[in-house]
Write a structure and sequence with these properties.
By secondary structure, the protein is α/β, with parallel strands linked by helices. It has six helices and ten strands, in the order E-H-E-H-E-H-E-H-E-E-E-H-E-E-E-H. It has helices at residues 13-21, 41-48, 66-76, 89-99, 173-180, 200-215; strands spanning 4-7, 26-31, 56-61, 80-83, 103-109, 127-132, 162-164, 184-187, 192-194, 197-198. It has an eight-stranded parallel β-sheet with strand order 7-6-5-4-3-2-1-8, covered by helices on one side. Strand 4 (80-83), helix 4 (89-99) and strand 5 form a beta-alpha-beta unit. Helix 5 (173-180) packs parallel to helix 6 (200-215). The longest helix is centred in the C-terminal third of the chain and has 16 residues, at 200-215. The chain is globular, with a radius of gyration of 16 Å. The mean pLDDT is 97. Bound molecules: ligand LGQLAAA5. Ligand LGQLAAA5 binds at residues 8-9, 28, 30, 32, 35, 37, 60, 62, 84, 131, 140-145, 165-168, 186-190. Pathway: Amino-acid biosynthesis; L-tryptophan biosynthesis; L-tryptophan from chorismate: step 3/5. GO terms for molecular function: phosphoribosylanthranilate isomerase activity. This is N-(5'-phosphoribosyl)anthranilate isomerase.
Amino acid sequence: MKTEVKICGLKTPEAVEHAVARGASHTGFIFFPRSPRNIEPDDAARVAKGIRGRAKIVAVTVDAENDDLDEIVAALNPDILQLHGGESPDRVLTVKAIYGLPVMKALPIREASDLDRIDPYLGIVDRFLFDAKPPVGSDLPGGNGISFDWRLLDALDERVDYMLSGGLNAANIGEAMALTGARAVDISSGIESAPGVKDLKLMDEFFDAVRRAETERP
Ligand SMILES: O=C(O)c1ccccc1N[C@@H]1O[C@H](COP(=O)(O)O)[C@@H](O)[C@H]1O
């Protein structure tokens, strides 16, 4: 089975089209003003226009209020909401009830005990996204370009559906996929030439590395 690849933090039609042409299953748009990848809902709708139905459109938000979610959903009509803050299981249930969209819940991972946070969300979220815990002092809950110890996922119940995220790039994705067996991966800063600026050559190298890793699967 082909690995699902989410290209996150997209801001231009060129980068979105390139990602989908290279086989991205998911495209991510960041709605978080402090991020260099932040995009306005109307701009995201314009940028994503050509790829609807060819790849999933993911709206990434961080502890967003309903007013903000209303605006994002109305403008972009995303396929999936990625909740990348401290949203509780109750909040996820509320968001699902209001918008009727699948939710991917990001959980920050640094140590084995961080996996204990999965349980309360089981049966509520549609998928998890495991990202590295942000470094102390970071302004961003994601997009920090740092990885966690992938071996921690050895302890994961294999029925838990997740995307692997955090500091992935062309140089380490082979090892990450081999160690975790992840069938879905997510990348943002690892394919950028500067914060928020996607580099199509780095994107190509990432897709090539993912496809190579697939052929090396047991
Ligand atoms: O990318 C951001 O700026 C961002 C801001 C707020 C919430 C989430 C964000 N990004 C998410 O983090 C992962 C990992 O990023 P990276 O590959 O380590 O740079 C990214 O794919 C987004 O889902």
